[in-house]
Amino acid sequence: MGVDEKLSSPGPLFFAEPPHLRSPDGSMAIWYTEPLGMVDELLTDNMTSATVKFLVETASARLEQAYARAPQPMVFVHVWKRARTYDMAARARLVQWGLTMGAEKIQRIWVLLEPQCPTFVKMACHAGAVPFAVRRIPMLITEDRAEILRQDALRVASGVPSP
Question: Considering the entire predicted model, what is its pTM?
């Protein structure tokens, strides 16, 4: 399956605009947002360590540069509605990445799922929210894209932050 096929199914992407970045293997799309933040969308059904490496190293590095120029709490949206399985090491790395950024940098984390996501994926997301709650970093899990946009009014940034 090619990248274009992954991008077109199932259903529309979070934003209509083309993503700023795509992972080399076509498993993830990245949009940088205004206000400062990032939307990542899993384009396959499996969250792998390679996908997470792209997110926490490549995509995040550009966001960190933008944050350094104009520090403000960031909003992260993880669109994982296609997720049907995940690599346990990938999940652990995602949690560690977020906790390392901390409450100073993170205003809120959203996880967008869909009703068809397997129960164990939903449970993993809810369990992943616990260490964030302890650190006072809001992590909200929803099946409603409109709820995210109502609360945070995110829009696609006009350019890609420099690495």
Answer: 0.90
